[in-house]
Design a protein that fits this description.
It is built from 4 helices and 7 strands; from the N terminus they run ααβαββββαββ. The chain has 238 residues and is an alpha/beta fold. It starts with a helix and ends in a 35-residue tail after the last strand. This is DUF3313 domain-containing protein.
Length: 238
């Protein structure tokens, strides 16, 4: 091999060697964890019961007697209204004294909707779509590979396996993780002091996100101007 042929090889080796020493941190995953998904009012009640128990336990453990607690009104919305009623009921069930009038001891909760733009995991080059009942289909297959019988059979087999795996791991009703989450924080406050605070995160379906968004305040009704009083005058000629 002449000298001209060695030059590209040496340059390529130098480039590869330089790339291998770049100080770029790799992307790594967190340890495996689980997160609940809220898909019904009963799930809201489970959360309300858990929060109420923690608040009631904190009130009972306080070294001095605390005044009755007032549950602050949250911005209007399907979740906010439902969760407040459930939380009020569960607080009473767990022995907390709840008052209708604002006082120095309050419970306040806030809801934050988080919608991620990125997809879960790496993009799959073949779109596997679950049709329910353990049946999956690979859509638009012709745009991804040759439509050979063996390939189509392999892809459909992988689709069914992937769907069955999701059912086994997440359950039929869970629906798997989503890119839409809701953060619910609840605080027990006395004047300017936090006595207790909880934070809970749930997956929700994107189609359910409107339940967690506060409703905009109603536009004020414009006042109708009053009709000025009228008076009739009789014209008398000369």
């Amino acid at each position: 091999m002449n000298q001209a042929c060695w030059i590209p090889l040496l340059l390529g080796g130098a480039l590869l060697g330089g790339c291998s020493t770049l100080d770029v941190p790799r992307a790594d995953n967190y340890e495996a964890s689980s997160q609940k998904k809220a898909r019904s009012v009963q799930h809201w009640d489970v959360l309300a019961d858990d929060v109420a128990k923690r608040i009631a336990d904190k009130i009972r453990s306080y070294p001095m007697a605390l005044p009755p607690v007032y549950l602050v009104q949250a911005p209007a919305g399907s979740f906010n209204q439902g969760f407040r009623e459930l939380l009020l009921t569960r607080l009473v069930n767990h022995g907390a004294i709840v008052t209708r009038q604002p006082g120095p001891l309050v419970v306040r909760f806030e809801t934050q909707l988080v919608e991620h733009g990125s997809q879960v995991g790496n993009a799959n080059p073949t779109p596997l779509v679950g049709l329910g009942g353990g049946v999956s289909v690979a859509r638009d297959l012709f745009t991804y590979a040759h439509s050979t019988t063996s390939y189509v059979g392999s892809v459909l087999g992988l689709a069914a396996l992937g769907d069955a795996t999701r059912i086994a791991l997440d359950g039929r009703a869970a629906g798997g993780p989503t890119r839409t989450e809701v953060l619910i924080t609840t605080s027990l406050e006395r004047e300017d002091t936090f006595l207790a605070r909880t934070a809970d995160v749930y997956y929700i379906e994107r189609d359910d996100s409107s339940l967690y968004v506060p409703k905009p305040p109603a536009a004020p009704v414009a006042a109708v101007p009053a009709t000025p009083p009228t008076r009739n005058w009789k014209v008398v000629g000369p």
